[in-house]
Amino acid sequence: MFDGTEWRAIPAAKWRSLLAALLVDPGGVVPLDRVAAQMWGETPPRTVANQVYGYVSRIRRLLGDTGGRILATHSPGYRLSISDHDVDAGVFVAQTTAGIQALRAGQPDYAARLLTAALALWRGPAFADVPSTPTIQAAAEYLSELRIAALEARIAADLACGQHTALVAELQALTQEHPLREDLWRLLMLTLYRCGRQAEALTAYRSVRNLLDEELGIEPGVELQELHRTILRGEPVCAATAEAEQEPLVVPQQLPAAAWPFVGRPEELRWLIQLSQDPQRGRAVVISAIDGAAGIGKTCLAIQLGHRVARQYPDGQLYINLRGFDPGGAPVEPATAVRAFLDALNVAPQRIPTDVDAQAALLRSCLAGKRMLLLLDNARDADQVRPLLPGTADCLVLITSRHR
Fold first, then answer.
1. pTM of the full predicted structure?
2. Domain shared by 144 and 240, yes or no
3. Rounded distance, CA 338 to CA 344, Å?
């Protein structure tokens, strides 16, 4: 911790737990019960408020913050009066996001510099020296996922700058460390092919295809299959990949504005936030379905939840009103909804197949490896929703519907 003049070690585990609870939401108010859960788990002491205040006072002295301007008391808990850029994790997120945007804008040199600087901040798993609670674990998983995305983007930037020879060993190690990341396999195949190692690139494709079949029962995504066909034909890589590399990918921000002030349903909102951060979800897609009678505020609650957790999904948010119970018109057809999402992701029209099942498969491929939030509003039934669901656990899906 930097106090303005020097770096200071955090000497005790309880101090680190307290700071971890506050740093998950820099600048936000963290309730006392959440601080206590981070520090003592499910068995806080009877004098929890006094004990937390004692630790707060010690940290204030460490910071030279006797007036409580930095670590502030703010009902119903405490707040660190800092911004994201005062925390190395916040700087990492900002530089990674800027680097990925620069790569998508066709600036690989600039992107490589930003992403290299971001990755240099990584010193190991986040929150490694504090007890793991659902909130802490969710934050740590988010940063770990973003680190992999930063690695993928930095390698893609280096590859665009012609540095393919130096990337082979790194990519071989990364595909072993993260065997289900299709984009890492795509980059490995592309790198090997540009190095003149066609046979090894084809072997890499067979490896990932067998792995995906054994582990998940699925075929490789569209981009991997297209690259495989290009390598089989012996065509120049740029002929198959120029469009994908130059196509300006976007980070959709489609959530409607949240109502302010948001009044009511604090328990439901708190429960949904905890569900979205549940570390036990494994490889299952988190789907939060909110149903009820017309007019009770389902959409408002879902939008509020979306904005509360949006920072955990840096690849964007997709929204569609499926009009499942719209008295003035017909429900949105699944093919129309899928196409709307593909358009929002800036998929080139010539890449979109005509068959709705193939379109849904392409959407799953586009969402694979990304952390995105999808809000499917006013859904009629499962058949309308199913083609829009991602295939991996990195995305959060919010669905509103109505009792019939």
1. 0.61
2. yes
3. 10
